[in-house]
Amino acid sequence: MISRLFRPIDNAPLILFRIFFGFLFACESFGAIATGWVRENFISPEFTFSHIGLEWLQPLPGYGMYLYFVVMGCLSLMVMLGYRYRLSLGLLTVLWAGAYFMQKTSYNNHYYLLLLIAFIMLFLPADSYASVDAKQNPGLKRLSMPAWCSWVMILQMGIVYFFATVAKFYPDWLDGTYTGILFSEIKTLPQIEKVFQNPTFHVFIAYAGIAFDGLIVPLLLWKRTRTLAVIASLLFHIFNSVFLQIGIFPYFALSFAVFFYPPESIRAVFFKRKPTDVPRTEVASGKSVFYWLFIPYFLIQLALPLRHWLIKGDVLWTEEGHRLSWRMMLRDRYGLVTFRVIDKENGNLLYYPVDKHMSQRQFHGMAAKPDMIWQMAQRIKADYLQKGTEVSVYVNCHVSVNRKPLQPLIDPKVDLAAVNWDYFWHNDWVLLPDDSKAIGM
């Protein structure tokens, strides 16, 4: 069984995926500029909420982020064409990692998936056919690849869909509460809106989502159901694209279907001039890359979505362990937050106009998430230290999940300017539903 991972197979699926990947990445990069996403998240704000530990990672000044995304778009097209593939993809991966870690206000799981796939593609021979590199350097040209090159892609998507399925098994999803919230905000034709507001439709969508995420990979792997699964994927992802408007993700997810079909079928449809016989001189390899890179990589990928089970409290409430866990489109959060800044020297209450330093989108995003609230407290502390004043920062925050009654999220008696963020375990100042009663709130 293991030996089959290293046998040579036609590389048509990987070559075709490289073309899809580069094109969609270019759409993501240029589209972010065209839709105003770059302006809203990187140019207009005074600062961004970078991932904790990377606060130094801030946008380029002025209109520099426009250039940043234009460069990524051009690099994406180079990847699509297979021109200086390793260099262009390496630079694209670094730049996209920078953009991804630079802001959390508009966090999206497909940004994370793009980063992971870019990393994986760096170690795959995706430029060995139908590329500028192979044309300029015939010695690079190959007609085959090790079978594991397809399986790492299948496994990655299997992980995504598996954990997305498991995450949906909670009451507000199973009874249609969250899907009801999701579709109640969609404005379209009156006849369609009437359907979208029907509670029966909400429950149907909830269970259809579970069924799709849980079954799509097994159905694609089984020859008898493969084409049916592709049709179901088309309907599912196009529906999401039209009504949920989630960027390139539906089309990106569809592009992985090329790895589930026999390589010869992909070649026959998309590369009709590609030779059908693999020369005997071509021997599949890459054992060291597979064993020493991809096995540890996938162990990490399996561990990250499980980490929230080791953290005290429900991740749906605390958000601790939420990111990097494929918990996609699961909840609606709304928060009310105020910051109380106290001069440590004289105990005076100081005024800090929090909302004046953030965009409305940033403020609403921050108000319901403990890590961003903590980062804001640290920023307030740093701003006053620059003026020579040491302060304490106390936070009063109430949050609603899925439009349930507001409950306290942050312990108002804890000075957030004086505590550290715990990366791996529960932060005790993040209140659990029963904690507020225990401390007399």
Note the topology:
Blueprint: E1 8-10, H1 12-34, H2 37-43, H3 64-81, H4 85-102, H5 109-121, H6 132-136, E2 144-146, H7 148-167, H8 171-174, H9 177-184, H10 190-196, H11 199-221, H12 223-243, H13 249-255, H14 263-270, H15 287-303, H16 315-318, E3 333-343, E4 349-350, H17 360-366, H18 370-386, E5 391-401, E6 407-408, H19 435-438
Antiparallel strand pairs: 1-2, 3-4, 3-5, 5-6
Structure write-up:
By secondary structure, the chain is of the alpha+beta class. The protein has 2 domains: 2-310, no CATH class; 332-438, no CATH class. Helices cover 52% and strands 7% of the residues. The chain has helices at 12-34, 37-43, 64-81, 85-102, 109-121, 132-136, 148-167, 171-174, 177-184, 190-196, 199-221, 223-243, 249-255, 263-270, 287-303, 315-318, 360-366, 370-386, 435-438, and strands at 8-10, 144-146, 333-343, 349-350, 391-401, 407-408. It has a 4-stranded antiparallel beta sheet with strand order 4-3-5-6. A hairpin with a 5-residue loop joins β5 and β6 (407-408). α11 (199-221) crosses α12. The longest helix is centred in the N-terminal third of the chain and has 23 residues, at 12-34. Residues 437-441 have low confidence and may be disordered.
